[in-house]
């Protein structure tokens, strides 16, 4: 992976930078020791590592602003970091950068059940936002698989999704306001506790900008009343195509499940071996979950099961209670981890039009054979967000490269059929060089113009999102 | 009036423009500004509709009615329930899908299903330099590159001329029910609506008309489920009085009237005020309006005031923003804090360096 050459002028001024940072931060918030900065050398895309020049852990918006102002004045790149769970290398440092971690910004600032909002500092983890309101019957809807660890700051940067976004939307649909610190230290309030921020939808473009437009230190999030109950049904088929057709029919029937998850045989076996979720051994397994009271669940599941039966399933089993439901979801949510137990893997994240499912699964199967690496498929079928897991051996020279080449081909296929490179993980460094397959030069130019306004020196989260060749002139200043 | 028949022609018009252009879809939502008139009326047609993927793509000038009819034929709908402005603004013409996006027009269901921009998953547009740009696409989960889809929604045509828009659509509800409470004060109405919206019974509309003394809460879905939830919701609302249930036809009529702000008909300026719902009683008290209508549980307050009233002065200090939807003179759009205004101006200057698309925002 090509990264920009560190700026020798910045490297030379490390001592000056640290002493200036120490004028605005307490000592325990500045990490500059070469060994200690190693802790920040990578995120969950561990194949790529580079220790930063320094890391800072501010405790307030003011401190974030002070750090950014100093880095801006000294032309030092800054890499924002939530919890470091990015699968796309979104928080990968460069050797001349300062990591700005929000992990000490974890307070709940306001909770209002009448207006159904919560305002938090963005280092707070996704699950602990729900944790702050669930005793009162509310929850925060976006639920990425990493929700136990991932920070709201990272969720906003990547516009994270989850298994239940078919009904509840992704981060951008649940975000009402932010405090944004620009690279020059300017603090801007956008939106608030009201619906629709007003003016140009800056909130919309900041969400998902991968930390390249500013650092969000506080966020007002929409919280929702918890449903009365939820229940999944397992539907197994001996053909991927038929499972895909079943998904389309369920959606067309006018019942909107909160989640429709899809696993192929490779993943079913890996997960069952690990989580003992009681999954049947078949070509394709759907988990369809609906919400409501007992009677409402019955009404919806009856409709879904009737549709499923028309496609001749090999398994059709309703969860009989909360324990079984939890097991079924544990299986799905541990799919990545269970795969990691038996093999190195690379997790892709392309989205496709649901109607193209059979064609894309066929294409993946063909490419998998061609490249000689196994690919398991587990994904959010309701919205077409695929997660092909390519299994490889990191210790066999050349396999990582083969894996990356195969991944690139699969993502190109997603774009070819009308989809996109990434549905919820973000571009980061991982898919940066594939952007030209999805976007024409003028499409990327329009996006980069927004960065020109918010970060004219192009110092925030360098070398992510856009191919280096495309950003070269701008980075040169 | 220039009427390009293709995106390419639209790009040529923008590229060749020597002065401001006055963009319009059906011109039902605002009085177009100064400059050479350009209409999207030649850019029509649904280009892709996949009911099984809940996806619809249409050219920007496509009449709203055509889109709603195509969706209805498959028992689907646009989630955000866009308003028809013709009655309120006394305009004629045909509302277009591009116009709804350019204004980010969202109706009563916004409180549960999100705004227009939340359903919008892709755009194609011609920017102020005449470049054709695409962003997003036809899939509902997409974080590839920056989200210009949201940025274009509600940008009033100032960043570019929309030529094509894509949506996530939803199944239409098989059944709806509306519960009505009578004679509540604004304070109690807001409390009642909050109680409904904070219940697990999925209220998809919550409105209050102080003059009529009515508070409405809507539930939609499968038949059995609607019956059940209507019963449970009535229990939640019991502290505020005995709720009466409207039949589906009456319910339809109520929500159409709320959607189109019929309570605002009459002489005077009409304002839309976005605030946190619990601030709505304060807004109504301070505005001293001739007529008021609360939607989104109070998150949207419609107000009618004598022409020329400085509503913003009366609401000074209440967080949120106020837009004058009907009335004369400058100041229709809310002012922005300096740091925010600098960003807005900066982005506009990048997308439209010659300032030929600013007409809509000024008008």
Keywords for this entry:
heterodimer, A: alpha+beta, Uridine Diphospho-n-acetylenolpyruvylglucosamine Reductase, domain 3, Alpha-Beta Plaits, 7-stranded antiparallel sheet, 5-stranded antiparallel sheet, B: 363 residues, 14 helices, 17 strands, globular, FAD (chain B), Glycolate oxidase FAD binding subunit (chain B), catalytic activity (chain B), FAD-bd_PCMH-like_sf (chain B), FAD-bd_PCMH (chain B)
Task: Detail the topology: elements first, then pairings.
The complex is a heterodimer of chains A (477) and B (363).
Chain A: H1 8-12, H2 14-24, E1 30-31, H3 34-37, E2 54-56, H4 61-73, E3 78-81, E4 98-101, E5 108-112, E6 117-121, H5 126-133, E7 138-139, H6 152-158, H7 165-168, E8 175-181, E9 187-191, H8 202-206, E10 215-222, E11 224-225, E12 230-237, H9 240-252, E13 259-264, H10 265-275, E14 284-291, H11 294-310, E15 315-318, H12 322-333, H13 335-342, E16 344-347, H14 357-371, E17 375-380, E18 388-392, H15 399-416, H16 435-438, H17 441-454, H18 468-475
Chain B: H1 7-16, E1 21-24, E2 36-39, E3 46-50, E4 55-59, H2 64-72, E5 76-77, H3 86-89, H4 97-103, H5 110-113, H6 116-119, E6 120-127, E7 132-136, H7 148-152, E8 160-168, E9 170-171, E10 175-182, H8 186-197, E11 203-209, E12 214-221, H9 223-237, E13 244-246, H10 248-259, E14 269-274, H11 280-287, E15 291-295, E16 300-305, H12 311-314, E17 321-326, H13 338-351, H14 359-362
Parallel strand pairs in B: 1-2
Antiparallel strand pairs in B: 3-4, 4-8, 5-9, 6-7, 6-8, 10-12, 10-13, 11-12, 14-16, 14-17, 15-16
- The total beta strand count of chain A reads 18
User: Regarding CATH, which class of the largest domain in chain B?
Assistant: Alpha Beta
Shape of chain B: globular
Number of DSSP strand runs of chain B: 17
Spans where pLDDT lies below 50 across 5 or more residues of chain A = none
The SS-based structural class of chain B is: alpha+beta
N-end to C-end Cα span of chain B: 18 Å
Question: What is the radius of gyration of chain A computed over CA atoms, rounded to a whole number of angstroms?
Answer: 23 Å
Q: How does CATH name the architecture of the largest domain in chain B? A: 2-Layer Sandwich
Provide the residue-averaged pLDDT of chain B.
95
In this structure, how is the largest beta sheet of chain A organized? 7 strands, antiparallel
Biggest sheet, spatial arrangement of strands of chain B = 3-4-8-6-7
Strand order of the largest sheet of chain A: 15-12-14-13-17-18-16
- Summed over residues and divided by their number, the pLDDT of chain A gives a mean of 95
Work out the helix count of chain A. 18
Major beta sheet summary of chain B: 5 strands, antiparallel
The CATH architecture of the largest domain in chain A is: 2-Layer Sandwich
Tertiary shape of chain A: globular
- The chain-level structural class of chain A is alpha+beta
CATH class of the largest domain in chain A: Alpha Beta
